[in-house]
Structures are given as C-alpha cells and as structure tokens.
Write a structure and sequence with these properties.
The protein is α+β, with helices and mostly antiparallel strands and about 450 residues long. The chain has four domains: about 35-140, Trypsin-like serine proteases (Thrombin, subunit H, Beta Barrel); about 150-255, Thrombin, subunit H; about 265-360, PDZ domain (Pdz3 Domain, Roll), CATH 2.30.42; about 385-460, Pdz3 Domain, CATH 2.30.42.10. The chain has ten helices and 28 strands. The protein has helices at about 1-25, 30-40, 65-70, 105-110, 245-255, 275-280, 300-305, 325-330, 405-410, 425-435, and strands spanning about 40-50, 85-95, 100-105, 115, 125, 125-130, 135-140, 150, 165-170, 175-185, 200, 215, 220-230, 240-245, 265, 265-270, 290-295, 310-315, 320, 340-345, 350-355, 360, 385-390, 395-400, 415-420, 420-425, 440-450, 450-460. The strands form five sheets. It has a seven-stranded antiparallel beta sheet. The chain has a six-stranded antiparallel β-barrel with strand order 9-10-11-14-13-12. Strands 16, 17, 18, 19, 20 and 21 form a six-stranded antiparallel beta sheet that branches. Mean pLDDT is about 80; it is low at about 360-375. Belongs to the peptidase S1C family. This is Probable periplasmic serine endoprotease DegP-like.
Length: about 450
C-alpha cells in the first residue's frame, strides 16, 4: 500500500512541476526570433572630437606633472600634444533603405566625425542631416542601398506593463540585448528635453545604448532609448525612451528642412502649484491638478486667444493636463498655424478658448522692468507696506511686517501683480481688493520676484 502511495505522490509532484514549468514558459516571452529579424537594422555609432593642442599660451591646460617640474617657465619651442581625439559611442537604427539613421542628439553633439558600423562589420562615414536638442533627436545619412530597416509601432498604444526589448552597444559590447517592461508613460523630465513625454522602462540601459531602438513584442520600434536615472553612473532600474511617434515627426522635419518648428503658446507656468493644495483651493479648485498660468507673454498666441494669468489650464485639444510638465510636449507636438481648443478654470468657472498655435523659434519673451522706491505706510490686514511701481503693472512690497503675508513667504521687493483673480495695477487696486478679503479663508497672490513668477496662498483668518 505504501509503495502505491509513493508512486502516486511521485506522479503528482511530477505533474505539478511540469505544470509550473509550462506556466512559466507561457508567461515569459521568447525574444530570439525578434532579435534575429531586427538586429541587422541596429547600428553602432562612433564619434570623434578633435582636441586643441596645448602650447605656451595654454599652460593651465597642462597635466599637473608638467607644471610641477617647469612651473610657468616652459621652453619657447615647447609643444605639448594633447591626448588623442576623444571618442564617443552610441547606438542607432536604420529607418530607410537608402541609409537614413535615427539616434540621439547627445550621441553626435559636438562630434567632428561620425561613423556607423553595421552588424556585418561594414563601416560607413555618416553625415549629420539635422539635430533637435529639444527632443534629443538626430538624423544621420550613410551611402547605401537596400539596407535592412526597422518597422515602426504606435507608441501611443503602448501599455504600462507591456514587454519591451532594447538592442545596442553598452560599454562598446556590440549588439547587446536587454529586456523589461514599460514602467510608466508620459514622464516629464524637464530641462532641455521638456518637449518629450518619456516612456519609462526597467530595461537595462547603459552608456552606449543611447540612440538605440526599443522594440515591442511584435518586433516594431516604439521608442528610442535616451536616458537613465542613476546615482552611480550605471543602470539602476529606471530608464527612459523617446516615443517613436514624436521621434518620427521630428525626423521628418529634419530630413526635409534640417530644422524643427514646434508649437508655441506663449505662457509661463507656475510649477509649485501642483504641490500646493491650499493654493489650488484658494483658486476654486478641489485638487491641485492642471497647469497654473503665471504669465501670458505680450503678442503671443495665448494673449490673442484671451488667456490670462491665474487661469488653470486643464485640457489641450481633448488631452487632460494633470501637471504643468504636460503642457510643453502637448503644445510642442502641434505645428505653427494649427487651431487648438483649450479648457481653463478661471475664478472657479470652466471656460473654453481656441488658440492658433505660433512658432517657438520666433518667440520673443518679455521681461518686466523695476522702478523706483516711494514711501508708503501699512494699512491692510496682510500687514505689508506696498507702493506703486513706475513702468510695471503691480505694486512693490516695501516692507513685510509680522503677519499672514510674512508667514506665507512674502519678501521685500516682491511685486504683487494679481490677487483673487484680479489684476493689481496700482496701490488703489491693492487697497480695494484687500479691503474685501474673505474671513477664515485664503487669498491667492501672484507676485513677480526678480524674473520669476511666484504664487502664495495667504490665510485671511
């Protein structure tokens, strides 16, 4: 009996292990076919940058060893040759049979020479057709025919949790393959790449991967691997890719004209708004969602459409605006002349506007000027001393005495330009508004601090 029980137990365990193995095989994708079909369209990019030789006039550039022995008294005929030209590495992929290649701008930026190495070992000199620092895109061209090309997917259809795969040359290890999943979409990193809603993945990306393709399981390119988040200089589980839909739109303009024209609205936003629930509520909002417009530039598309400072932008052409960082990539994706519908919250009410998108390259940004310092006395519940300012619509804060404004962070020299959704163009406007402040509430105050716009929510209890 025991013998039969042992046999049954052994068979049961075998079935369980077999089932687990089968489930694991079903859950984990097999990338081999994808890699075999697409690796030929991925290229290694090598750049060279010339370094100026050091002569007598460039003593400070010499290695410490030379300056230690010779100081500033070098022989007249001394000619120290700098190290060999610096070399950079990156990745890219072929987008047309006649040799157009897509990569990152930072891979080829500042390079004197760019060459491309294929998987079969062929090496080509490459011409930089055009670059766009705003999206970190560059288009290269090599002389070739019937070259292997990638297929393009739709990055808008990419889903969080979806498997993706990268091919590139990290640390000069050619055609390395790494895989992972989409961690998030629409990541705004700010800085020079503020026009890109990045795809975040956990695919291992390292120096040399930049510019390489990000594939979905159908073997179609959905992004360009561009950046990593790191504190060590190496991969830490967070990498970012440029959506291919944006990249190809930029690439088309670079191929046709060599430059990129992107949409321009003409507003300055206030980033801290999205972290300040009290400020949002003081402006009639339940949550700190949207993008608070701090400034509308003169002669801009926004001004022509009727947008105003203190408007909270919540929707652009049907796309929800959750944070201020959502606005640049959404507006930048339009072409100059496009008509776009905007939805804002103004004074607690929803309003619709149609704007004709302008060109960012022709934008002229205005800056406020500051005037003299007259004398006035404090006579308001905020306990601040203000004065009229010549040449600026607003009042200058001359003194901040102990009280609600001081606790909220107001400083001497701030220029108050708006309160409670009303423009403050003079001390008379200021006096009128503060005389009717609500009790046991808060007032939203827009100030100009140097060249920056700052919002404060000042309690009135």
């Amino acid at each position: 009996m025991r013998k039969y029980l042992a046999i049954i137990w052994t068979m049961s365990m075998t079935l369980v292990v077999s089932s687990v193995a089968t489930a694991a095989n079903l859950a984990l994708p097999d990338f081999t076919e994808l890699v075999e079909e697409n690796s030929g369209s991925v290229v290694k990019i090598v750049t060279e940058s010339q370094v100026e030789p050091v002569n007598q006039a460039d003593v400070e550039q010499l290695p410490e060893l030379f300056r230690y022995f010779f100081g500033d008294q070098l022989p007249e005929d001394f000619d120290y040759q700098a190290p060999q030209p610096s070399e950079g590495l990156g990745s890219g992929f072929i987008i047309s049979e006649d040799g157009y290649i897509l990569t990152n701008n930072h891979v080829v930026s500042g390079a004197d020479k760019v060459s491309v190495r294929m998987t079969n070992g062929d090496i080509f000199d490459a011409e930089v057709v055009g670059t766009d620092p705003g999206t970190d895109i560059a288009v290269l061209k090599i002389e070739g025919k019937n070259l292997p090309v990638v297929e393009f997917g739709d990055s808008d259809e990419l889903k969080v949790g979806e498997w993706v795969l990268a091919i590139g040359s990290p640390f000069n290890f050619e055609y390395s393959v790494t895989a992972g999943i989409v961690s998030a979409k629409g990541r705004a990193l700010g800085g020079a790449d503020r026009y890109v809603p990045f795809i975040q993945t956990d695919v291992a990306i390292n120096p040399g991967n930049s510019g390489g393709p990000l594939f979905n399981l159908d073997g179609k390119v959905v992004g360009i691997n561009s950046q990593i988040y790191t504190r060590s200089g190496g991969f830490m589980g967070v990498s970012f890719a440029i959506p291919i839909n944006i990249a190809m739109k930029v690439a088309k303009q670079l191929q046709e004209t060599g430059e990129v024209q992107r949409g321009w609205l003409g507003v300055e936003m206030y980033p801290p708004f999205n972290e300040d629930l009290e400020l949002a509520r003081s402006m009639g909002l339940e949550r700190a969602d949207g993008a608070l417009i701090a400034r509308v530039f003169p002669n801009s598309p926004a001004e022509a459409a009727g947008l105003k400072a203190d408007d909270v932008l919540i929707e652009i052409d049907g796309h929800k605006v959750r944070r201020y960082a959502d606005v640049p990539p959404l507006i930048g994706a339009f072409s100059p002349g496009d008509k776009v519908d905007l939805t804002v919250i103004r004074g607690g009410d929803k309003k619709e506007f149609r704007v004709v998108i302008g060109s960012l390259s022709n934008a002229q940004l205005a800056q406020a000027e500051q005037g003299a310092l007259p004398d006035h006395t404090a006579d308001n519940p905020l306990n601040i001393i203000v004065s009229d300012v010549s040449g600026v619509n607003g009042v200058r804060v001359e003194e901040v005495q102990p009280g609600p404004a001081q606790r909220a962070g107001m400083r001497k020299g701030d220029i108050i330009t708006m309160m409670r959704n009303e423009f403050v163009e003079s001390k008379g406007d200021f006096d009128r508004i503060v005389s009717n402040l609500p009790k046991n509430g808060a007032v939203a105050v827009r100030i100009l601090r140097g060249n920056n716009i700052v919002y404060l929510a000042i309690p009135t209890h």
